[in-house]
Amino acid sequence: GFDVQPGREMMIADTGSDFAGAVIELLRSEGRRQQLGERAFTFVSATYAWKAIVPNLEQVYSRLKKQA
Fold first, then answer.
1. DSSP assignment, residue 8?
2. Helix, strand or coil for residue 6?
3. DSSP-assigned states of every residue in 14-67
4. What are the backbone dihedrals phi and psi of residue 6, each rounded to the nearest 5 degrees, phi first?
5. DSSP state for residue 3 in the 8-state scheme
6. Helix (H, G, I), strand (E, B) or coil at 2
7. What is the DSSP letter of 5?
8. Cβ contact 48:54 at 8 Å
9. What is the pLDDT of residues 35-48, one digit of tens each?
10. Could you give the C-alpha distances from 39 to 26, 42, 56, in angstroms and in order?
11. C-alpha distances out from residue 5 to 10, 17, 59, Å
12. pTM recorded for the entire structure
């Protein structure tokens, strides 16, 4: 899973009507949309940007090199 809180970095919906309700909520609230978008961007940038991924890959490569 993702290390996020539903409603903070992303919206979670289990049914079609829940999904539609979440979309309508975001369409009606510019502030909520902005806040959710900023938090989601921060999460994705910190987790999946090259600056976050490369150090992890380097650790894996280093461990593999030591095992070889």
1. T
2. strand
3. SSHHHHHHHHHHHHH-HHHHHHHHHHHHHHHHHHHSHHHHHHHHHHHHHHHHHH
4. -55, 130
5. S
6. coil
7. -
8. no
9. 999 999 999 999 99
10. 14, 5, 23
11. 7, 21, 28
12. 0.72
Separation between Cα atoms, residue 48 and residue 60, nearest integer Å: 16
The three-class DSSP label of residue 10 is strand
Question: What is the token pair recorded at 30?
Answer: 């510019």
Spell out a b/e string for 34-62, using b for 16 or more CB atoms within 10 Å of the CB, else e: eebeebeeebeeeeeeeeeeeeeeeeeee
Question: At residue 34, does pLDDT exceed 90?
Answer: yes
pLDDT for 2 equals: 83
Question: Is-contact 25 32, C-beta < 8 A?
Answer: yes
